[in-house]
Amino acid sequence: MFGYNTISIDQKHRVSIPAKYRVDFLKTNETEIVVTKDPQYPSLKLYKGSEWKIISTKLQSLQGLDPVVRNLQWTILGNASVTDFDPNGRMLILLPQELRNYAQLDNKNKISFVGMGNKFEIWNTDNWNLRQTGGTLATEILDVVLPSSIKEMSF
Amino acid sequence: MFGYNTISIDQKHRVSIPAKYRVDFLKTNETEIVVTKDPQYPSLKLYKGSEWKIISTKLQSLQGLDPVVRNLQWTILGNASVTDFDPNGRMLILLPQELRNYAQLDNKNKISFVGMGNKFEIWNTDNWNLRQTGGTLATEILDVVLPSSIKEMSF
DNA sequence: AAATGAGTTGGTCTGTAAGCCGGATTCTGT
DNA sequence: ACAGAATCCGGCTTACAGACCAACTCATTT
């Protein structure tokens, strides 16, 4: 599913996934959704359960003594938050503190939800233009240092 | 199981494993958990009993003439602390002094618990934040010195 | 304008983390 | 060797976060 939406976080830090995406999830018999950090930008990534299985398995299989690899594993695996779908169709997910910090979502009540096919992103609306301009310094460094085995992977 | 949690150590140096991870352990019929030093960073690693069997076997099989290898064996095997699960479901593990020292957990009451799938890590929260923002020189050096037979192993 | 469906908020309730307390065991000093 | 002290360990209790349930409001469509 594609598209840009503005959705809201309530005081309990809950976010409800827009209905049109939900339909897409149900079509493919997904039962869970996973939220984690985007390693490149101050934003969050949402994966369908099935997508997540692939990605996390790949990442775990990478050998862990390389500091760059470990860093990636920490960021992506170490911050993942798995949520099952609401039985009555609704889809409310709770964003953990650490993730809210990372994506700078605190003290906000409106955030950006971006559909990218299999993957979805959650942004602080103010940061969204980072995507356009090229991101943080960390991104550039990461890009240079990253082993090609990882560069080829899709997050 | 994945995710980042802040948990507390009590005055008796006990740590209780968050429930969602516990569930995961029970699902795979694990009966014990092993805590040991992380050879690279001032932090601790938790393994499921089954995972630990594999890792320790691998490590023992390495020939001990290389001083780097012996060092690794000492750090990982020599400090392992095995704990059985609480029969009534609770999962309180006691962190031995040596391990607390190593991970710089004394005089702290909050620590970081990081789930990485099969493995789990325990960090002094202050150090964890450092890891996120950058690396230490020691890590890079370790990476150069390490024989490739070890680099290929995953801890 | 009414009805249906989606988004949002609020309340309740359960499971759990963490503190507390008391008994046991080890350690120390005389 | 014995008594007192200090540390260790298990059970119990409680405050609170998160899951669940439900209602209300807003929007959209016919």
TrEMBL record, chains A, B:
A Pfam family: MraZ
Domain SpoVT-AbrB: 82-127
Gene Ontology biological process: negative regulation of DNA-templated transcription initiation
Subunit structure: Forms oligomers.
PROSITE patterns hit by this protein: SPOVT_ABRB
Gene Ontology cellular-component terms listed: cytoplasm; nucleoid
HAMAP family: MraZ
Superkingdom assignment: Bacteria
Localisation: Cytoplasm, Nucleoid
Alphabetically ordered keywords of this record: Cytoplasm, DNA-binding, Repeat, Transcription, Transcription regulation
The protein, known as: Transcriptional regulator MraZ
Major localization listed first in the record, in broad terms: cytoplasm
GO MF annotation, one: transcription cis-regulatory region binding
Family: Belongs to the MraZ family.
InterPro entries linked to this entry: MraZ (IPR003444), MraZ_C (IPR035644), MraZ_dom (IPR020603), MraZ_N (IPR035642), MraZ_sf (IPR038619), SpoVT-AbrB_dom (IPR007159), SpoVT-AbrB_sf (IPR037914)
